[in-house]
Amino acid sequence: MKLWQRIFLSSLCLIIVAVNVISIVLLNNSHKLIIEREQSHAIKEYEYFAASFANSAVYERLRSEKIILSEAEINQIGSSIVSSRPNGQPAAVYTYDKEVIALSNLPELFSLTEFNRFIAGINMTADSYSIRVFNCAGVRYMAVCSTLRVEDKVYLLMTASDVSEIYTLRDRQTDFIRKVGIISAAVISLILLVTVILLLRPLSRLNTYTKAIAGGNYKIRIRKKGSREFRELADNMNIMADSIQSNAARLEKIAEDRQTFIANLAHEMKTPLTSILGFADLLRIKKNVSDRERVEYAGTIVEETKRLRSLSGKLMELIALGGTETEKKPVSIPEMIKDTESALTPILQKNSVSLSAWSEDIMISADEELFKSLLYNIIENAVKASAIGQEINIRAGMSDGNVVIAVTDHGIGMSPEDAKKVFEPFYMVDKSRSRKAGGAGLGLALCVKIAELHNAILTIDSKLGEGTTVYIIISGEERL
Amino acid sequence: MINILIIEDDRNIAKMIKATLSIVNYNGTCCYDGKSGVHEAMKGMYDLILLDIMLPEMNGFEVMDAIKNCGTPVIFLTAMQDVADKVKGLRLGAEDYIVKPFEALELLARIDVVLRRSNKTQNIITYGTLSVDISSHIITDSGVPVQLTPKEFDVIVYFLQHQDIAVSRERLLSNIWGYEFEGESRTVDIHVQQVRRKLGLKDKLITIPKLGYRLESQDKT
């Protein structure tokens, strides 16, 4: 069963039961009060009847100047008293032995056996009343019965009055309450239903929203509505969706990068393989291969094999970087630049490019070999971009609390589009030029990895035809 | 003379394709980017275009789109093995699709199929006293018809189209029988022996140890 149905049905049951119990209790209470009032009224009436019987007997005795009235005379008095009851209300006089002396207006269907039982219940010695309600042919009578001593004889007297009205009133009230109960239950249930549904509506909204998130739609956010608990829940769910979305996006980006990396790697491997396989196959199947052709074919095979070797070397470096822990120790930036410079001397001389370096005396915590290879790669790129006779400038110093090393060349530069992509693996600004120089397009990707390990970032600033500056920005925390 | 345009940005691959084409006497012209490739193709003097997909500036699909009106058949060359790319290339109207890296003879075989489809190969090949009519499946030696089984006919035609090239048994199997299965290479040997005997090519169709067979060209002897 659904939550709203449960809440609705249980509240409805409770309300209906409570209303009914209260009205029944109230009704019974008021009915009892009326009955009590009617009883005291009936007793008064009885007393009046009994007194008039006794008085009549005394008066008759005095009038006839007898000492004792005969039984017939008393019977006579009884009959006249009984018949003079106001409004024709029933009354009766019996002897002590329960023989009827006088009787008036008693309905014919007055059940005798029941009456006898009533009479039998009367304590004949005590001066008490017995009160009872009889149902007779649809009319209810309240009967009061007691004993009376007249002229040394005990008589049994009874008066009865019609109390049907009280019971009809009660029945009418019960009926009325039932009707009111049904109508109010209907109204209450309607109001309750609307309230419950309105209160629980945010829950179903949250539910559809959660389903949507589960279904992979991480973009949607729920509106904050409803009671405080629901607003809080909506808030937390939105926070959850935020983190799911950012995580999913991050994972997607990683998967996408990896996919691109593999596709590029496959392409970079297949290109030299195509030349190698093609030329090797030609050497194998051709009947006559001239010396010139042989040198050309085999030369290309060697060249392309070297390209593959460089690619696999760089790949191994990348993989190794991903797995190893760096061994950081205090190193001096000016010294590292000097070391890198001397390592680059052959390349600098070959390309007739000069290098000028200036550095503040800064010590940082770094893996010396890795950091030197980062510098080496970046300066080597600068050399490749430079023309004969140009100069490369290296400056290192503090800026905004960070350690910054800038490598500037005045070479060919590149377009903003190229500058944006240049850190991507396998991206080469000029493919044929880069490949001739033995590049695999992985150098800067390696640099980015090394920079990451040193809490540093790389940025590039380049203008086509004017030159390029690469900045290595190392977080100030690494400074010693 | 068959003229083939090679649009390929890697110079070594372009050079290799050109050299491969030269062994069957096809003339190859190289373009190293999409734009000049389109410009060259528009001249309309080519029988076939070999088109790389990963090209700088203008990729192979864009080139294909630009040149499809000149009616020259196109074979895509690509390092990508993606089925989606293959479908895209073929839907754009390419005749075939070769995945890098490829063997020289595979390239030639694919080119042959496309050229034959566009009726650009010779239908009659002569070799010494032999004359072979490929379309009517008739072979005559000095005007006298020679009876060959269909497979034997295919074998001699393949050798005639690839003179002076060492052809492996596997290559013959996959080109003529249509499957690659080393255990069946005896089938190849039997057919080659039959062809040799029936056409008197004992000195010309020679066995190359560990590799296969080669039909020596006529003019060099």
Task: Give me the secondary-structure topology.
The complex is a heterodimer of chains A (480) and B (221).
Chain A: H1 3-64, H2 71-83, E1 91-95, E2 100-104, H3 112-120, E3 130-136, E4 139-150, E5 153-162, H4 164-214, H5 228-285, H6 291-323, E6 329-332, H7 333-351, E7 354-359, E8 363-366, H8 368-385, E9 391-399, E10 402-409, H9 416-421, H10 431-436, H11 443-453, E11 456-463, E12 467-474
Parallel strand pairs in A: 7-9
Antiparallel strand pairs in A: 1-2, 1-5, 3-4, 4-5, 6-8, 9-10, 10-12, 11-12
Helix pairs in contact in A: 1-2, 1-4, 4-5, 5-6, 6-11, 7-8, 8-11
Chain B: E1 2-7, H1 11-22, E2 26-31, H2 34-41, E3 48-52, H3 60-67, E4 74-78, H4 83-91, E5 96-99, H5 104-117, E6 124-127, E7 130-133, E8 138-141, E9 144-145, H6 150-161, E10 167-168, H7 169-177, H8 185-199, E11 205-208, E12 212-215
Parallel strand pairs in B: 1-2, 1-3, 3-4, 4-5
Antiparallel strand pairs in B: 6-7, 7-8, 8-9, 10-12, 11-12
Helix pairs in contact in B: 2-3, 6-8
Helix-strand pattern of chain A: HHEEHEEEHHHEHEEHEEHHHEE
Relative strand content of chain B:
15-25%
Which whole number gives the mean pLDDT of chain A?
Answer: 84
* Overall residue-averaged pLDDT value of chain B: 84
Please give the share of residues in helix of chain B. Answer: 25-40%
Q: Architecture of the domain at 3-170 in chain A, according to CATH?
A: 2-Layer Sandwich
Structural class of chain B: alpha/beta
What's the N-to-C terminus distance of chain A?
A: 68 Å
Task: Explain the overall architecture.
The complex is a heterodimer of chains A (480) and B (221). By secondary structure, chain A is of the alpha+beta class. Among the domains of chain A are: 3-170, 2-Layer Sandwich (Beta-Lactamase); 325-478, Heat Shock Protein 90 (2-Layer Sandwich). Chain A is 60% helix and 18% strand. Chain A contains eleven helices and twelve strands. Chain A has helices at residues 3-64, 71-83, 112-120, 164-214, 228-285, 291-323, 333-351, 368-385, 416-421, 431-436, 443-453; strands at 91-95, 100-104, 130-136, 139-150, 153-162, 329-332, 354-359, 363-366, 391-399, 402-409, 456-463, 467-474. In chain A, the strands form three sheets. In chain A, strands 2-1-5-4-3 form a five-stranded antiparallel beta sheet. In chain A, helix 7 (333-351) runs parallel beside helix 8. The radius of gyration of chain A is 59 Å and the shape is rod-shaped. The relative contact order of chain A is 0.06. The mean pLDDT of chain A is 84. Helix content of chain B is 39%, strand content 23%. Chain B has helices at residues 11-22, 34-41, 60-67, 83-91, 104-117, 150-161, 169-177, 185-199, and strands spanning 2-7, 26-31, 48-52, 74-78, 96-99, 124-127, 130-133, 138-141, 144-145, 167-168, 205-208, 212-215. Chain B has a five-stranded parallel beta sheet with strand order 2-1-3-4-5, with helices on both faces. In chain B, helix 2 (34-41) packs parallel to helix 3 (60-67) and helix 6 crosses helix 8 (185-199). Chain B has 221 residues and is α/β, with parallel strands linked by helices. Classes of the chains: A alpha+beta (480), B alpha/beta (221). The A-B interface holds A 263, 266-267, 270-279, 281-282, 284-288, 293, 296-297, 300, 303-304, 431-432, 435 and B 9-13, 15-17, 19-20, 23, 32, 54, 56, 79-81, 100-105, 107, 164-167, 211, 214, 216.
